[in-house]
Amino acid sequence: MKKLLTILALSLIAALSAVSFTACDTEHTHKYDSGVITKAPTCTEKGIKTFTCVNGDDSYTEEISALGHVLIHHEAKSATCTEIGWNAYDSCSRNDYTTYERIAALGHEYESEVIKEATCTEQGYTTYTCSRCDDSYAEEIAALGHNYVDGVCTRCGAKEPGVFEGLKLILNDEGTEYSVTGYEGTSTEVYIPSEFNNKPVTSIRNYAFKSCSGLTSVSIPDSVTSIGDQAFYGCSGLTSITIGNSVTSIGDQAFDGCNRTVLQALLSPIVLRV
Ligand SMILES: [Zn+2]
Ligand SMILES: [Zn+2]
Ligand SMILES: [Zn+2]
Ligand SMILES: [Zn+2]
Fold it and tell me: pTM of this prediction?
């Protein structure tokens, strides 16, 4: 009987031992792996590393510090007339941060200089040069053209062609009107102005065009009232003459030696005293 009890006791111990071994398996000391980065850190944000028990029954996390920017320094570059610039700045090599600020191109600052003034007959030009970069361009100034007043250019003194180049004019004693006293021009066509210096041209003096045999055409304006003695004496080349209707006095032999046939036709109804 005592032996049986012993066997029973041993059996009970063995049974209890078996139960105890099973419970030990569920209450092991965790053995964690070396960790896996489950959230990568950035320059400015923390990351997370997760450690898991090799049995897969537990895990914990650890923070990974933010990386911080890796700054690269950039020197300043001045803006030019045509290119942008920037102040000195830093940027992160991971391209997530910069203090870069663009400075717009400045544009040219042109200063003008008249290199050649335009004249009556020649164009001039102006240069525009940038005070900063020397960039430059030129602009033409159109020729001004003559500004004729009474047949003379007020700017350059040129005489209006064909008008009264070479015509000699004299002011009367009263200073009120002009007379034509002679002709030294080269043109074969003479146009006598009706006014000179804002005063009327009223007469052609004696001998004014005497022996001007090269003269082919003469135009006498309405302002002229008298033609002097031998004024056109010997003007044998005259084929055209225009006389205003104000002429009231024609001197002796005024047209002597001219082509009478031509003159008769042209001057009709004015009666020539030749
Ligand atoms: Zn475990
Ligand atoms: Zn960064
Ligand atoms: Zn410039
Ligand atoms: Zn001129």
Answer: 0.42
